[in-house]
């Protein structure tokens, strides 16, 4: 009875050793591939986030300049100020694809 248990234990240990030697390289290669895929995915996410931040900062800078030109036009609606405000707003419509048109209306300025 003891020899059967000893033989079974030795066979089990040998089977584990052979299985480990066979499966370890396969598992190792799979884990390296999974790690590479995860790293690539994280890098893509970081790039997308940085691009979003960059676009947001460009929008903020453009908005400040745009608002200054519009305020100047509203306070003094001459041809030069109208042109500057129109150019800013046209840039906004081309930069922001979902905006199709913009109108400016003020108490002392004609609607455009």
What does this structure look like?
Helices cover 81% and strands 0% of the residues. It is mainly alpha-helical and 112 residues long. Helix 1 (2-75) packs antiparallel against helix 2. It is rod-shaped, with a radius of gyration of 34 Å. It starts with a helix and ends in a 17-residue tail after the last helix.
What is the averaged pLDDT score?
78
Query: What's the Cα radius of gyration?
Result: 34 Å
The CA-CA distance between the termini, in Å, is: 101 Å
> Beta-sheet strand percentage?
under 5%
Number of strands: 0
Which H/E pattern describes the elements? HH
Describe the main β-sheet briefly: none
Instruction: List low-pLDDT spans.
Output: none
Helix content: over 70%
Helix-strand makeup class: mainly alpha
**Helical segment count:** 2
Shape: rod-shaped
Architecture blueprint of SSEs:
Blueprint: H1 2-75, H2 79-95
Helix pairs in contact: 1-2
List keywords for this structure.
single chain, 112 residues, mainly alpha, 2 helices
Summarize the structure.
The protein has about 110 residues and is mainly α. It has helices at about 1-75, 80-95.
